[in-house]
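Take a look at this chain, tokens included, and explain the fold to me:
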Amino acid sequence: MDVYEAVASRRSVRRFTDRPVPREVLERVLSTAAWAPSGSNLQPWHAYVLTGGPLDAVKKRAGARLAAGDPWDEPEYEQYPAHLKSPYRERRSAFGEQRYGGLGILRADVEARQRAASANWNCFGAPAAMFCYIDRDLGRPQWSDVGMFLQTVMLLLRAEGLHSCTQMAWAKFHRTVAETVAPPRDLTLFCGMSIGYERPEAHTTRTGRAPVRETVTFVDR
């Protein structure tokens, strides 16, 4: 798989088989992803990879919290601005319509949307998950570095025939994750990433992208 194919085929998969992901594959992906760029080579990412019993424990604890109606954890960062301006507001709305519309869920069916969203905390059935942390004292450029690391991981997973789904949703249950991974106190959970093999019958509609003319300006004269 060349780079263009990896980029074009990467998408957020939300239905996985229970086929285990070999440890050696995960190690190969993450050791290679270490070459992702970062300012002054700080490499500010801290990744915890869970499979088997530890991942089952996190899923079970998160599921119990959902069933009990526990409130989300105190946020450690703002996922989206309170007042999202155009064109980002429209893009987010279009994503929601396509995501839930593809599942046959009407916009007004709040309960069904919540049920679909709750699958986040079961990692969509994935047998492996990575939880990515960053030192809370670092700044915006270092958060950007973490993003480049995550994208590198996702493209390498495609090269291995695997799929993934990054999930800021796990930041809402960061205390639950911490009960298993026990991160140092100076780290904050940015996101989780479900990793595995896609279920053949999975819904594969891709979220659209803005045309290049909306996001890129060529200055050549």
The helical segments are 3-9, 23-33, 52-68, 88-101, 110-118, 140-159, 174-181, 212-215.
